[in-house]
Design a protein that fits this description.
By secondary structure, the chain is an alpha+beta fold. It is built from 7 helices and 11 strands. It has a 4-stranded mixed β-sheet, with helices on one face. Strands 7-9-8 form a 3-stranded antiparallel β-sheet.
Length: about 240
């Protein structure tokens, strides 16, 4: 179940001007707007929250900033308010030209359950599955080969997706490891065992295994094939920021 934070604000509240300085929030008082958690089932406790921010690089630049600066300011504000708090930021990627509100794209990319459920109910744009070729469906996280869903594991799909989103660019092994596992992941493979993950992925692609090409001495690359369709109905999983 998703967790939401109600922020009761007067309808006539004046907008807050943007400022590069971080200002500590005032101490709560009896007159302060009420803040209450909702949709928290019995027997559970709130351990944090997610704030979806919809702003692309162009909008940030037009405002005289960039996404990295915004992230750092939000992290700094959190640390100022609660020094013991832990933070983690991710940037949501989407194929160029994808429409829709920025915040909706971000929610889908970051797998917000409510956004995903709404998307599944309203999605009428996905083409019917053909009996031939390959469909790499980024919205549903699945690969369909000759009309049958390939038995990819979560990590195998994430590996394929990482390459698909960088179509035509050779990705070295170190980038694959840092992009998909991170430095703090105890299960992260080394540059030798990443080849094993790729071999397992290619074996499940069957006769279409050549879409994941090996660039000898460098890494791997996704090459579009005439029989391969990539569906960007939703947005891909985020890359670490």
């Amino acid at each position: 179940m998703s967790l939401a934070l109600d922020l009761a604000r007067p309808a006539t509240s004046a907008p807050v001007a943007a400022s590069p300085a971080v200002v500590a929030a005032p101490a709560p008082s009896a007159e302060a707007p009420s803040r209450r958690l909702r949709a928290v089932p019995d027997g559970t406790e709130a351990r944090g929250f997610v704030l979806y921010v919809g702003v692309d690089e162009l909008k940030a630049a037009a405002a005289g900033t960039d996404l990295g600066t915004i992230v750092e300011e939000l992290k700094r504000l959190t640390e100022l308010l609660v020094p013991s708090a832990e933070t983690y930021a991710a940037v949501a990627l989407a194929p160029q030209g994808v429409g829709g509100r920025d915040v909706d794209v971000v929610r889908l990319a970051l797998q917000d359950p409510a956004a995903l459920a709404k998307h599944r109910r309203t999605d009428e744009t996905v083409a019917p599955e053909s009996k031939g070729g390959v469909i790499i469906d980024l919205s549903r996280k699945r690969v369909v080969i000759e009309g049958e869903t390939a038995p990819l594991t979560y990590k195998e799909f994430e590996l394929l997706q990482y390459l698909v989103l960088r179509e035509g660019r050779t990705i070295d092994r170190a980038e694959l490891i840092s992009g998909l596992w991170g430095a703090d992941d105890d299960d992260a493979p080394n540059e030798r065992t990443i080849d094993v993950h790729v071999r397992r992925l290619r074996s499940k692609l069957g006769v279409y295994d050549e879409i994941v090409r090996t660039v000898r001495g460098v890494g791997y690359r996704f090459d579009r094939h005439a029989d391969v369709s990539v569906q960007h109905t939703s947005t891909p999983s985020p890359d670490r920021f």
